[in-house]
Amino acid sequence: MSHIADNLLAVHARIEHAARNANRAPDSISLLAVSKTFPAADIRAAFAAGQRAFGENYVQESLAKIEALGDLRADMEWHFIGPLQSNKTRPVAEHFDWVHSVDRLKIAERLSEQRPDALPPLNVCLQVNVSGESSKSGVAPEEALALARAIAALPKLRLRGLMSIPEPASDQQAQREPHRRLRQLYETLRAQGIELDTLSMGMSGDLEAAVLEGATIVRIGTAIFGQRGYTH
Ligand SMILES: *Cc1c(COP(=O)(O)O)cnc(C)c1O
């Protein structure tokens, strides 16, 4: 078995264990394999081991891989999770199934306009800055409701939920805090009538904390593919 197949088994075991501790059904949490910086061959190995949803951060790099894996396209889901500039929205609207990193209306409007009519609506999450000053991406929590309302009205987008990338913390209590704030915001938006079903939170280092706080998608890179070389 490839190391990637082994790693996927280990990550699924972590998800199941955390779900049990949280009294949640393991299949209420889906695994997004974050393949940025890794070659198409590694994605193919993960696919062979049963993984279907993949997350990418960089537009040019991801387009090359989506093309190289075109033979598998019908059975794969591609999620864009990186910072998105307005001059790069078109290929994302054309080639991805999800975007997790929408944090301003202009980007959402462009994605909706550029989404091809032949494709189903693009699934989007609002990226929320739940851990304050240090991170520049993400809408402020107090602005999330207005942005969610505006995005929910766009014809070729389907607003699914919220995403966050909190500051790393080493102990689980500290890790849970920003995840809890994201979940509370999610509940607040739902109580305001915004239909959402997705909380995209948790990475290799804080998967358990995220599952305990209600994550429905965990985004895992290192624990599946190994350490990144950071060529970007
Ligand atoms: C790289 C990345 C991940 C995966 O992080 P790991 O710590 O390698 O699991 C998850 N989410 C986003 C937005 C990322 O950029």
From TrEMBL:
Entries under CDD domains matching the protein: PLPDE_III_Yggs_like
Residues modified as N6-(pyridoxal phosphate)lysine: K36
Signal sequence segment: none
Alphabetically ordered keywords of this record: Pyridoxal phosphate
Domain Alanine racemase N-terminal positions: 16-227
GO MF annotation: an example: pyridoxal phosphate binding
Gene3D superfamilies on file: Alanine racemase
Cofactor(s) required, per the database record: pyridoxal 5'-phosphate
UniProt-listed InterPro entries: Ala_racemase_N, PLP-binding_barrel, PyrdxlP_homeostasis
Domain of life: Bacteria
NCBIfam families (alphabetical): YggS family pyridoxal phosphate-dependent enzyme (TIGR00044)
Entry similarity comment: Belongs to the pyridoxal phosphate-binding protein YggS/PROSC family.
Role, per record: Pyridoxal 5'-phosphate (PLP)-binding protein, which is involved in PLP homeostasis.
Name this polypeptide is given: Pyridoxal phosphate homeostasis protein
